[in-house]
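Can anyone check this?
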Amino acid sequence: MNVFANTVVTITFKLFDSNNQLIEEADEPIAYLHGGHSGIFPKVEEALGNKQVGDSVSVTLEPDDAFGDYDAELMRIESLDQLPPEVAVGGHLVAEQDGHEVVWRVTSIADGKAVLDGNHELAGQRLRFDCRVLDIRPATPEELTHGHVHGAHGHHH
């Protein structure tokens, strides 16, 4: 079977930065619903089209293909007395901004203030996504209705 729209594709992957340093590696295989269901980077999904079990792809992702450009407007300095007492460098805070949920990463704390960054940690970076196809199967009607994978390596309700 080949990868095509409305198939469930199971892969392993490694993600590298522009210096060829490993950033992330799948501990367990992941499964996604192929065909524009937002389960994987679109450029990776395009490269996986028509592949078979055992095939590998390597895709270079520019910032626009992955986590976007770095946006300096998503940096804030907040007084610690306005934040939860357990706030710590490396921690995350979730807040609503303009009707959207924003995850703020605490990048530093000094002089009673915390620096918060709403950019994804990999924003503005060129990445390389290497993956290998482990399994391909037709999606179930329920998966197609919900727009995501159910069961092993996928979403559980």
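Reply from J.R.: I decoded it. Residues 73 and 118 are 9 Å apart (CA to CA).
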